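Example with several molecule types.
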Amino acid sequence: MDGAALSIDPPLAQPEAADAVPALVRRAAAGDVAAFEQLYRQHVGRLYGTILRLVGRDRARAEELTQEAFVRAWQKLASFRHESAFSTWLHRLGVNTALMDLRARRDDETTDDAALATAAGGAVPFCAGERADLERAVAALPPRARAVLVLHDVEGFKHEEIAAELGMAVGSSKAQLHRARGLLRRALGGAA
Amino acid sequence: MNHELIWRNELRKLGGPALPERDLWPAIHARIAATPRRGRRWPALAAAAAAVLVVGGAGWLGWRARTPPATDAAPPAPLAWAQPELPALAAAAQDLDAASVQLQQALERRPDAVFLVGLLNRTNAQRMRLLRQEAKAR
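Resulting C-alpha cells for the full complex:
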C-alpha cells in the first residue's frame, strides 16, 4: 500500500461542451475507439480518485480496478440509455467494480463488536490535523468500514445506495459508518 | 463550528480527481480490442435469424420438390425496413431480410402454408426488435 500523500490534481481535461459528451458517447457506443479514448482521458481522474480511496490508497490495485472499470464501460456502452449523465453512469460502474472486488476478498466480513463498542464511545473529538493524516487514517480503516465511510462522507451516497452496492442491510451500512467514524476519531485523536 | 461539521467538511475535501502513476489507456485499448462487447443481443438475433432460415428454407425446399415452379411470378420485394447503421446490426438485418424474401416467395407459391406465415411473422418481429435495439444504442 502506498504511504505517500494522494496527488490531487486539478481536473485532468477541459470540460467539453454539453452536447459534445453525448456525441462522444454515441460514437464510442458505435465502436469508435478514438472517441472512447477521449472519454477515458476526460474521466479517468475522477474515477481513479474514487477507486483509490475505496481501496485504501493501494495504487497498483486502484490502477487495475480503474482499467477493469473502463473495459466494462466499453462492453456495456451499448446499453447506456442516456437517462443519467455519462459521468454519473461511469462513476457508478467504477464504484461497483471496486466494491465487487471488495466483496470477493471478504477479508473484513464480520463486524468487530469490540471496535464498535469503542467507536460508539465517541470520547475523542475530531481533530482536523493535516489532510495527509486524515487520508492515512481513512486508508487504514477495515475495508468495508472504509468503503461505507468513503461512499457516504466523501462521495455523498445515501445509506440505501451503499447497502444495495455492498449487498448489506441499511442498518449494517449505518453501523459500519458509525464504526468507521469512531475508529477514525480514535486514530486521529491518538495521532494528535 | 461544531466538531461534526468540521468532520464532514474535512472528509468532503478528500474527494476529487487523482492521476494514476502510469497511462492506463494502452492496456485498456489492448483489452477492448481483444474482447467482444457484452450485453448486445446481435449474436442471439443472428442465431435466431439463422434458425428461421434453416427451418423456413427446409420447409420451402421440401414444398418446392413437390410443386412445379411458377414461371411468371416476379420475386417479392422485401418490406421497406429502415437499415441499421451499426455494423453488427446491419449484418443481422441483412440475414433477416434475406429470410423474409425467401419466406414471402414460398408463401406466394403456397399461400395455405400456416407454418410459413408463422415463420414470416417471427422474422418480422425479430427485424422490429433489431430497430428497437439500435434506437436504444443511440
